[in-house]
Predict the 3D structure of the following.
Amino acid sequence: MAGQRAARAVIFTADDFGLHPRVNAAVERAHRDGVLNAASLMVGAPAAQDAVERARRLPSLAVGLHLVLADGPATLPAHEIPALVGPDGRFGDAMAKDGCRFFFLPHVRAQLRREIRAQFDAFASTGLPLDHVNAHKHFHLHPTVLSLIVEIGRDYGLRAVRLPYERSASAWLKPWIALVRARLDRAGLAHNDYVVGIEHTGAMDEAVLLAALADLPDGVGEIYCHPAEAGDGPITPSMRDYRPVDEMRALLSPRVAAAVKASGAASGGFADVFGLSAAGSRTACAAHEPGAQPS
């Protein structure tokens, strides 16, 4: 599946693409004029169509699927997945409780499977090549969610998945990360070696990016963030302490661009740094476009 992997690379990714027009505008600007390589699309979010239209104008922007299974809107109607969402069609944020239900309750797991497939299908309908997949709030660390992503993703040209491992991770988390890494390796899926963005979530400013770039190890790193243009109030109540404008400015910073160049690391989306062919993703997208005939 993979071609020639870069020995040392960095992927700059913006999450929550589609959440709000201010997020989408920041993603477009940071890709055109800054270091941003990729964005992770929330297919059921209010501004998803605007995000897709912007992405179509930016063929060099690598776009992946940001699966929402917590603290956000579902893709299927609430009456089809009542065990997952409230009457408003939104997932809650009790992730520990929901994780237990995913694992132990077959009827909940069946609805979860349908919703994950619906989100893959919605992404495929955009016609955008699928660069990568990750989950909102890293819910793909859950073994049931990860297994369903791997299983369902095969039908949609899945090639790469984010490994949410930060080098400062606590000792108790590292064995779990090792299991996730092994699961992805067995499935033949590309993944980054580490991330930068967990410890400083919502505050990935210029100083944080410069510090990360000054200490890049060998391997593929993903630096992810949540940029947005300025506006009234937070993007969502759960992001009230975030500094999205500072994150956008960091991605546009000439100092950050110079540091990327000085590092000597390759940069791009997952397909770029892992030498993955986009053919499989485009084929999957075409196969799931409205009106397409099954092969």
Q: What stands out?
A: Residues 125 and 290 are 7 Å apart (CA to CA). The chain has a mean pLDDT of 92. The longest helix spans residues 106-124.
